[in-house]
Amino acid sequence: MKQVTKKVILAGSMSVGKTSLVNKYIYHKFSEQYISTIGVRIDKKSIELGDTQLNMILWDLAGENNQINTPQSYFLGAGGVLYVIDLNNPATFIAVAEEIDFIKNKLPNVPLLLIGNKKDLLSPSELDKVLDMISITPDYLTSAKEGENVELIFEKIGIKMIGL
Ligand SMILES: Nc1nc2c(ncn2[C@@H]2O[C@H](COP(=O)(O)OP(=O)(O)O)[C@@H](O)[C@H]2O)c(=O)[nH]1
Ligand SMILES: [Mg+2]
After folding, report:
1. Residue 34 contacts residue 15 (beta carbons within 8 Å)
2. Chain segment 41-81, per-residue pLDDT in tens
3. How many domains does the chain have?
4. What is the Å distance from ligand 1's center to 34 Cα?
5. C-alpha distances out from residue 155 to 35, 39, 83, 87, 121, Å
6. 51 CA to middle of ligand 2, Å?
7. Which residue segment(s) compose the domain that 27 sits in?
8. Gap between the Cα atoms of 107 and 36, Å rounded
9. CA nearest 138: which of 12, 9, 25, 42?
10. Tens digit of pLDDT for each residue in 80-112?
11. Which DSSP symbol is given to 38?
12. Residue with the nearest Cα to atom 22 of ligand 1?
């Protein structure tokens, strides 16, 4: 089996659920408690996609991941980006187009998925309204709490990274 290793970075504002998505994916755990990650947390997950074993190195940066204070090393060598917004907090998606442009500039030709998280907190009609407010349609909607689409988003970015 072919082995491929790729760095995946979690991006997006503070408290959108980046750490929760990684925790749910890797440890099948969810916590209501907010523990702001200190520095960068790096987790590894290997999955099989077709005839490839993909080793994903997941980088999860703490704090306000905006353009100014994200260290260059965070982007360096990234093979994929999951940009996470909180569907319940407009402040996390008000500038999403600009944020994504900035990342795409830094990482040309690197696949990026826009993830709308905390779907569990919205009714279907509220969700429709929120989706109308977001300038770019999210690729996937997730709930780190309920586990909805959590595995899926890591698989989808994996598929894009290995060019399947
Ligand atoms: N209801 C709900 N709460 C979530 C979800 N994802 C994260 N949270 C909560 O949101 C807060 C921030 O999550 P965290 O993963 O630390 O955000 P980060 O700063 O982006 O890493 C925590 O209190 C989590 O329990 C979700 O999908 N649904
Ligand atoms: Mg975090």
Report:
1. yes
2. 899 999 999 999 999 999 998 876 666 678 888 999 999 99
3. 1
4. 7
5. 26, 26, 15, 22, 24
6. 33
7. 2-162
8. 26
9. 12
10. 999 999 999 999 999 999 999 999 999 999 999
11. P
12. 34
